[in-house]
Amino acid sequence: MSFDVQAATDNYINALGPEALARAAAYTSGSHWTLLWGFLISTAVAWLVIKLQVLDNLEDKLKHKSLWLRSFAISGAYLFLSSLLTLPWTLYADWWREMSYGKTSQPLSDFLSQGSVSLLISTLLGGLFLSGVYFFIRRLGRYWWAWSGGLTAVTVSTLMLIGPLWIEPLFNKYTPLPPGEVREALEELAKQAKIQPDRIFVYNGSRQSNRFTANVSGLGSSARIAISDVTVTQASLDEVKAVTGHEIGHYVSGHVWNLIGTAVVLSMIFFYLTDAMFNMVARRLGCTASIAEPRGIAVLLVCISFLSLMAQPITNYVVRLGEIEADQYSYKAVNLPDAMASALVKTAEYRDPRPHPLQELIFYTHPSVEKRVRAAMEWKAQHTN
Ligand SMILES: [Zn+2]
């Protein structure tokens, strides 16, 4: 009797039960709505800051300072102020909602203290980046969008390089995998892919989230594979191997370069379109600044957020292609399609395994769990007899 791919796929997904499937669907579509609401709320905050003329007053006070200092201070101030004003929404969307679905056990105090660390980092780095953008607008005129795209390339690559070294350790503790069968299995996998075994870490991901997850980050010598302690404690040895095989797939396929390339091309397009739409959006929000004035930063960022929201289907498409490639790498490297399927089912609670095709096309950063399990079962059908 031949192996029935569809029946095997249905078995895996249906094993979750109708209640868990309904909950996953509710959580997932809610997450997509929070994206839209997040944009609307940040636009309302921009309108409020413009109305109160906070940045106009600040620019007036700093008018004798250099352009660089002025744009750094005004951009940083706006990033800081808008994060504070959207805090109630952030608390709802990123903490309370996660808590109510059982996706996090992080105490509010820890959430807030880690939030203040990331607020400081984003104010500082965001202020630096935006002061570069204002420098290009003022000094290079018409082609500022192309130069700013170049600046995005430098910034994203620098962040990727220093992320694992200086930023990620501020939020989680990364330690080498303890000796044992998991470590032996993963070292073997790393060796096949010519990755130094000391680049595989376990981190206390359970601090922020109960999600079953792993990731690759860093560039060149800072690149590393990190597995959340949630995955290590909740997965079987085969599941850890299948999931790590997937992460190593990202690493050896160089997906980080696809992401940097996409970020640069999209940022140039975003800046170009922002140049074209700035005056219209500024009028609607009641802002009198031109694009070259740092006090118009709220309008500039509303344009960029709107364009990033619109570009979601494109960025998600690129990311999904990488996910398919990484799954295929795992099947080739460890050949454990059933372990991959059962590991994937464990992620279904926060990614509806059977989304509407349109929902998947627009919002999904990974192909649906059902599609991925079916691909695993197809691999199984072709490689076992
Ligand atoms: Zn992946």
Could you explain how this protein is built, in words?
The protein is mostly helical. Helices cover 73% and strands 4% of the residues. It has helices at residues 5-14, 18-51, 54-61, 67-85, 87-100, 108-140, 144-171, 181-192, 229-234, 237-252, 255-285, 297-310, 312-334, 337-347, 357-363, 369-383; strands at residues 174-176, 200-203, 214-217, 224-228. Strands 1-2-4-3 form a four-stranded mixed β-sheet, sandwiched between helices. Helix 10 (237-252) crosses helix 13. It is elongated, with a radius of gyration of 23 Å. The protein starts with a helix and ends with a helix. The model has no long low-confidence stretch (mean pLDDT 92). Zinc ion (ZN) binds at residues 246, 250, 323, 326.
Question: Any idea what the shape is?
Answer: elongated
Gyration radius, to the nearest Å? 23 Å
Q: Main sheet, how many strands, which sense, barrel?
A: 4 strands, mixed
Overall SS class: mainly alpha
Low-confidence stretches: none
- Secondary structure: helix percent: over 70%
Query: Helix tally?
Result: 16
Strand order of the largest sheet: 1-2-4-3
Q: What is the quaternary state of this protein? A: single chain
Name the bound molecules: zinc ion
